[in-house]
Amino acid sequence: MALSTEESGRLVALLSGQDERVTTRWTEIVTSSLRGRLSQAELRRQVQDLHRAIVASGEQGTIDLSADSAAELRAALSELSRGRARQGFSATETTISVFALKDVVAELVQEAGGADALKDYVAFSKLVDEMGLFTFESFVRTRESLIADQAEQLLELSTPVVKLWEGVVAVPLVGTLDSARAQVVMERLLQTLVDTGSPYAIIDITGVPAVDTQVAQHILKTVVAARLMGADCIISGIRPQIAQTIVALGIEFGDIATKASLADALRHVLRLNGVETARRQPRRDI
Amino acid sequence: MTTGVDLGQPQAQSVRSDEDVVRVRQLVRAVAVSVKLSLVDQTKVVTAASELARNTLVYGGGGSVEVTVVDNGRRKGVQIVFADSGPGIADLDLAMTDGYTSGGGLGLGLSGSRRLVDEFQIETSAGTGTRITVTKWSR
Amino acid sequence: MERVPILKIGDILLVSIQLDMSDQTAVALQEDLAQRIVDTGCHGVIIDITALDIVDSFVGRMLSTIASISKVLDAETVVVGMRPAVAITLVELGLSLNGIRTALNVERGMELIAAAHADELDYQLDDEPDAETATP
């Protein structure tokens, strides 16, 4: 969908002939649609950028949004929508900034009149539609990547690996474990073993409300992978209901050490390492 | 290695010797990196490629491997086709079983690689050879 | 064909695999290592795979074979430095590397071999008085 050379020539003449008036009117329309959530000055700058990009690509002949000559225009549009998406504007509020150009052009064409006015307007409006769609697309892309980033941050937040003792690391798992999160935990734990040179890892599932077959599989795979790397895993904090589920599901933990609490697990590891953990004797004086 | 090569285009590699299996691994690694697979997924798909390329060499008597970047609109991925014109696989179900081997290996080549990739297709018939297509998608 | 170098450090043979091995190189390593164990009389072998970005069933089988061969030749084999991604892949592949001892790094591997060797010495020392009492 490209404008012909004459059409874009006329559009450029129209837009650049009265550029001050175009940008002012354009800014006005956009400002009213955003209800003052962006400053007039900023909107004006954005609108001027777009205006300049359209004129610049029109001066090179035909305006075709998918052509190389329109690279600057596309960049201006994506910058606009990226900014709006990050500031939390809706898709409508974003695309309206582009569609507002139609109103401006309509007014100008009406004033100029002429035989080709209607034909020109239809062609221009098609271009604006295309620009609007492009803006919408990049708005959605930005939002999607924002969501993906947040999901990743959430995963990182929820899976800390802590060092408990020289050579002992622990992962306290809290909340529901789905497959994706279990995988992240697994990789993080194994990487920490390498980074810290710790031969023992305690996986504490006190904070996990339920264990299904898939989650149990992930934990088992982690333990086997750790063994392949030369480290041992102990699972602690198995609650009574979870123990029942594990048995009911027929999941075999085999020779993997399981302990009731994190403290028991740590004591177990320390004993394996020959560290004496003295229990405090009850007082016998008096 | 593969510098200066357009990884967007399908890359072909013939498999005639041990060294070719190494080349297949390097090629698959380069393409997997270019579509931004995670490190674990890269490792999985390269391992699967290594197993299947070796099968092509040992059981298929040599053949060819083609590596392509695929895009389903939402995610990108690596697609690898292993083709040989060897004797084919007579009993596919048996060959896909863990631990079954006809050639003195560990019997994990086919069954194991299927677990390492997202999509696994195999076409084989006695006398005309085997064609295996695997795909790994980025997350 | 490239060959993997084998270093002797004290009573231990250290193999650090730095290249993407072809199957032939892997087989050659297996043979070279058996020869070196016999030549040097070492009691420990450490195979460092830190640099390997994949271990497939062929390399896995080579590691198992090396462990078995060295066992026959009275040497303990420890595979060290397996990357997390490699370990996860091996689990998925279904390769368990039975009979292979593993450690996180070379240092831990040396401790393992030293401990295994010390056990053996203790055992021999404990054994001797018994043998004497059995045959006075």
Automatic annotation (TrEMBL), chain A:
Q: Please give the superkingdom of this protein's source.
A: Bacteria
InterPro entries for this protein: Bact_StressResp_Reg, RsbRD_N_dom, STAS_dom, STAS_dom_sf
Q: Does the keyword Lyase apply?
A: no
Keyword NADP set for record: no
| Classification via SUPFAM superfamilies | SpoIIaa-like (SSF52091)
Q: Where is the STAS domain?
A: 158-269
Query: Keyword annotations for this protein?
Result: Phosphoprotein
Query: What PANTHER family does this protein map onto?
Result: RSBT ANTAGONIST PROTEIN RSBS-RELATED, RSBT CO-ANTAGONIST PROTEIN RSBRC
Q: What name is this protein filed under?
A: Anti-anti-sigma factor
Species: Micromonospora arida
UniProtKB/TrEMBL annotation, chain B:
Pfam families cross-referenced by the UniProt entry: HATPase_c
Q: Which InterPro entries match?
A: HATPase_C_sf, HATPase_dom
* SUPFAM superfamilies (alphabetical): ATPase domain of HSP90 chaperone/DNA topoisomerase II/histidine kinase (SSF55874)
**Superkingdom of source:** Bacteria
State the protein's name. Anti-sigma regulatory factor
Q: Where does the record locate the signal sequence feature? A: none
Question: Histidine kinase/HSP90-like ATPase domain: which residues?
Answer: 40-139
Recorded source organism is Micromonospora arida
Gene3D superfamilies for the chain: Histidine kinase-like ATPase, C-terminal domain
Automatic annotation (TrEMBL), chain C:
Tell me the Gene3D superfamilies matching this sequence: STAS domain (3.30.750.24)
* Pfam families recorded: STAS (PF01740)
Q: Where is the STAS domain?
A: 2-113
Tell me the SUPFAM superfamilies matching this sequence. Answer: SpoIIaa-like
Entry protein name: Anti-anti-sigma factor
Which organism was this protein described from? Micromonospora arida
